[in-house]
């Protein structure tokens, strides 16, 4: 298996599990992951938030951890990467205001490279204008944005994944086993036991 180079877009209050688990799992498999944030450099951190499903009308939010970035945002050249990963949480709502971030999302999509987005990560896909005529899962509160972007919101269980072409999307972190497995499939990564 050839190692792949993956760009991960993060920001303050990214969902803790949705950044930590994929980052560590993809590194464990042997892929290279560059976690970047606008305005920040390698070694700096972003704050995470822990979102949980405790029977309320929406998720609860608690302080998470500090997540260390490992690459400079300004040094990114999207053409150098094999895939894009977009965690959820609150970060996507303001990351989508950064034109460079939106340009990268469009570049990955135009090139047909795998794009994995979970939870509120769909906000970046919608803002980048890549969902028209396509299917996308996300946290249910993002369904109107998927539809307004011309996409079809796919309502699936919180632990499920939806794949259409190069897009791998899921509602939230309980989908990690299915979501990461589908993403690895698009990357051509196989794991034998």
From TrEMBL:
Highest taxon above the source species: Bacteria
Keywords: Glutamine amidotransferase, Transferase
Source organism: Pseudomonas weihenstephanensis
CDD domains with a match to the protein in the record: GATase1_PfpI_1 (cd03169)
PROSITE patterns in UniProt: PEPTIDASE_C56_PFPI
Protein's UniProt name: Glutamine amidotransferase
GO MF term set: transferase activity
Domain DJ-1/PfpI: 4-184
InterPro entries on file: C56_PfpI-like, Class_I_gatase-like, DJ-1/PfpI
Keyword Transferase recorded: yes
Keyword Transferase: yes
Gene3D superfamilies on file: 3.40.50.880
Family: Belongs to the peptidase C56 family.
Classification via Pfam families: DJ-1_PfpI
